[in-house]
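Honest question from a wet-lab person: if I give you the sequences of every part of a complex, can you actually get the arrangement of the whole thing, not just the pieces? Trying it with mine:
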Amino acid sequence: MIEPKVLKGFRDSLPQAELQRKAMIRKLEDVFASYALVPIDTPILEYTEVLLGKGGGETDKQIFRFKDNGDREVAMRFDLTVPLARFISTNREALAFPFKRYHIGKAYRGENTQRGRFREFYQCDFDILGVDTAYSDYQVLSIMASALEAIASSSFVISFSHRGVFNAYLSSLGLADRSVQILRSVDKLGKIGEQGVIEALKADGLNEDQCKAILDFISIRDKDIAKAIDRLETLAGPVEGIMRLREVLSLLQGSGIQDRYCLDASITRGLDYYTGMVFETLLDDTPEIGSVCSGGRYNNLASLYSKQEVPGVGASVGLDRLLSASEGSTYPSCDLLFMTDNEQARAQADPLARQLRQAGLKVDMYLADKKAKDIYSYVDKNHIGFGVTSWGEGRLTLKDFSTRMTYEDLSVQEAVKLVKECR
Amino acid sequence: MIEPKVLKGFRDSLPQAELQRKAMIRKLEDVFASYALVPIDTPILEYTEVLLGKGGGETDKQIFRFKDNGDREVAMRFDLTVPLARFISTNREALAFPFKRYHIGKAYRGENTQRGRFREFYQCDFDILGVDTAYSDYQVLSIMASALEAIASSSFVISFSHRGVFNAYLSSLGLADRSVQILRSVDKLGKIGEQGVIEALKADGLNEDQCKAILDFISIRDKDIAKAIDRLETLAGPVEGIMRLREVLSLLQGSGIQDRYCLDASITRGLDYYTGMVFETLLDDTPEIGSVCSGGRYNNLASLYSKQEVPGVGASVGLDRLLSASEGSTYPSCDLLFMTDNEQARAQADPLARQLRQAGLKVDMYLADKKAKDIYSYVDKNHIGFGVTSWGEGRLTLKDFSTRMTYEDLSVQEAVKLVKECR
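Yes, you can. This is the full assembly:
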């Protein structure tokens, strides 16, 4: 006998969790499709060199990598961004540019699992590749809002800033060469607070005035975005990014969705990667879970594989965080269950069950010859709303398990109407 | 620079393929849900011992296996059946029995890739666990029919037989101890023909009479299922499986779907695994691609992990085969494209695009400042049906790219109606 154990950091997805995930993914896919984003997929296994670059040996102990039976160095993908870069380099000719894609799939990291992180997790990314325009920045912001309206458990605010403006400001302070460190320190503002950031900046070797100047900048946070852009301009000067922010604001205002957004200059998204606008999203009810949709503009995605520069802008939806934020919701396995405890009853009920399915209901038939107690335990575990307690030629009696009301002698049409109204 | 190459036996899924796969999976999930099957998922990576059993070293060179960073022997799942057995052993208490689940996901085998097989492929399985009844056998047959009605590119026939009846017949011929070999030889009938099977059986050591007796049995193939069962009974005697076949036939007749099915005694499904009914499905238009939905009854799924016997019946949908059978279909990335070649035009068109999305259309905006030639190349690659060629306050002009007809000065409602009618 072998112990049926699961690897540390991995987990099964039970029906309730999987129903919830699938419902959320379907809503996201519908939003993405409404904006004409197309889906792609890439292999979970790739050449290690393709995923990590040639030097990627020492720093990447968290990656699942091995030699396959053909003695190739292979690794499991650890995100969907590197595979995207490889994908557009491999398939450039076949793709239609500007290329707008989404990609929902699993990725793998051998991370320390203590902080509720898992070694197998979902990524959900969408990106617009091939243009560097205000409209494409705006479109990503607007897809973010549509996506979260479809799936978030509460209202939300999308905050954005512009890395180019911040970098210009750092240059004016004579700190251009320390921007990577500074961005990382500033990125921790939410966790360590202003005082913490000041200490981190001092540890990076900044003096009092420089720290204060950076604090001035990252304190700019306003839902009156025009005002916030003016303040950024006062500090950083009339740089290109200021113009871009104003164009994006104008598009947001034109579509009437500007209330969803906030300019927050403390948002930097730690990664070197970003060159233009950067985005984050907090849920109003559970800000403590962190950003549930983040991204930004980058202008050199495929540099590892190709000399041709590919500008892009995109965001990543935090599926696992959003799922955890709506914990406690239940997902019925079906609309109604025929309470059958013997084979003869099933044979008699089957034509009615088929009719109800054809009318669009999800219909279950209890399949074991067991007692009422067992059937009710099945109902509870599956969060089923209605039971069919008796039936005859084209007629049935429904029991609403939540109200304990009974509806006798319904036609198929009446039953369908009743159940659909309660969905 | 690193070459953006993909591992042998692996492949990217480009937008057209992925749109097709997602459309097919969504239809399948709707069918499964209508029968109250619930989705589950399991990790792609498991302990090697859990997937292969303790002895599984030599024979399993096709498996992707390695030592992880924690020195654990791990392997990538090579099907969804072994993970299901492990899953129900791990989660028995949390699950509602009879447990009806479906599972769609990737699996991995380092197979020789010459025969159009891939090392990363989709599996789509559904099973009913916890009962051994005629109704559950019938329900799987009926889900198979509903699933294929939803996704198959042509009409189809589901053929079935019963392993228990065949085994009883082999016993009566004194061949019980050679059943595994014989079943495997018979399973090749479609490929090697009757004469080939006879030669294979002779090679297994059977004499002329025994070969003829087996040929008599496996030649039974009839859409008049009652007649075929009678002939099976004449050969094998009134064994338990005969009774089960009659009960299932009666259920198929009761639901009026018996024309979908055929009794074909040559179907054995090579694996030792099956104990009762076995199923296969051929498409009428492309029988040469092989069975597109196969399965059967097994009565000891979780024996590797648990002493408790779990009877089950299920089938596997051949997604990749069904996708290849409907090759040539095209999947538009959207319903219509605003033919915009500058940022000002995009800003002006955006409110209309939003209205059309809210009305349920998939709406694209061309995002680059390029020439008409480039826009038409984008239209072609994305198989887009309609273009918006001009627009003003709440009005738009549509061009139907397939007929080259132009529809001028439409309201949003008129445009939505026109496009939805052409979908």
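Two things worth pointing out. The longest helix of chain B spans residues 15-34. Chain B touches chain A through 107 residues (CB under 8 Å).
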